[in-house]
């Protein structure tokens, strides 16, 4: 009887050893493929947009070589000009999945004090079907503590201005896409060097 019990116990241990990894694998597979809403957020990431890949409107901008880097330089002028930066992230056909932009870091330098202003705006575009008009909204955001006062954004210094989106939205099949508009109001003496932006996003498994 004792040998029979020991044999049964060994069989149970052997079966458990085989089943446990399979159960764990199934559990992990379910976790990675869970079809759920936007509260099931898996990870965060960051995308770089190079300065020389943006669109400019007005002013004289030059893609300039620095020490082991390239940046976009705005020649000093008493004028208001724009930088338009596409904020590309991958979309998804299922609501609550894919990517959503949470923050944007803007890297720039002013060479001297005296610029009139630099004003960012984030646009959320909704792409329509044929026959309908493309529409846009301007999602609210907050500044980091080093740029939340107007004068802080135009000091002669190296700047990393962080815009945190108040209510991020998923980039889905409805066709939602983002742009950054950076309006620069020059004073005729200040030179702006623009290095690019980083896009922070949250990723939910596809």
The 3D shape can be described as globular
Which residue ranges are poorly predicted, with pLDDT under 50 across at least 5 consecutive positions? Answer: 11-16, 21-38
Distance between the termini: 55 Å
Q: Say what the CATH topology of the largest domain is.
A: Jelly Rolls
Judged by helices, strands and strand pairing, the structural class is: alpha+beta
Structural description of this entry:
This protein is of the alpha+beta class. It folds into 2 domains: 1-33; 42-204, Sandwich (Jelly Rolls), CATH 2.60.120. It has 1 helix and 12 strands. Strands 1, 3, 4, 6, 9, 10 and 12 form a 7-stranded antiparallel sheet that branches. The longest helix has 31 residues, at 2-32. Residues 11-16 and 21-38 have low confidence and may be disordered.
Helix-strand layout with pairing:
Elements: H1 2-32, E1 43-50, E2 55-57, E3 61-65, E4 70-74, E5 80-87, E6 98-110, E7 117-126, E8 135-137, E9 141-143, E10 158-165, E11 176-185, E12 192-204
Antiparallel strand pairs: 1-12, 2-5, 3-4, 4-12, 5-11, 6-10, 6-12, 7-8, 7-11, 9-10
Key terms for this structure?
alpha+beta; 5-stranded antiparallel β-sheet; 2 domains; 15% helix; Jelly Rolls; 12 strands; 1 helix; 43% strand
Quick structural summary:
The protein is an alpha+beta fold and 206 residues long. The chain has 2 domains: 1-33; 42-204, Galactose-binding domain-like (Jelly Rolls). The chain is built from 1 helix and 12 strands, in the order αββββββββββββ.
């Amino acid at each position: 009887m004792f040998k029979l019990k020991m044999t049964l116990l060994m069989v149970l241990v052997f079966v458990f050893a085989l089943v446990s990894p399979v159960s764990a694998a199934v559990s992990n597979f379910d976790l990675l493929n869970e079809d759920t809403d936007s509260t099931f957020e898996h990870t965060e990431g960051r995308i770089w947009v190079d300065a020389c890949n943006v669109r400019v409107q007005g002013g004289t901008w030059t893609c300039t070589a620095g020490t082991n880097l390239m940046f976009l330089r705005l020649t000093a002028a008493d004028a208001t000009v724009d930088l338009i930066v596409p904020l590309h992230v991958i979309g998804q056909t299922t609501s609550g999945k894919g990517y959503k932009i949470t923050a944007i870091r803007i890297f720039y330098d002013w060479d001297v004090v005296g610029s009139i202003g630099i004003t960012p705006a984030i646009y959320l575009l909704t792409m329509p079907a044929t026959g309908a008009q493309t529409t846009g909204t301007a999602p609210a955001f907050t500044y980091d503590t080093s740029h939340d006062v107007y004068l802080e954004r135009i000091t002669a210094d190296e700047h990393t201005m962080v815009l945190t989106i108040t209510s991020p939205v998923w980039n889905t099949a409805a066709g939602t896409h983002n742009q950054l508009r950076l309006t620069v109001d020059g004073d005729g003496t200040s030179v702006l060097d623009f290095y690019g932006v980083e896009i922070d996003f949250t990723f939910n498994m596809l």
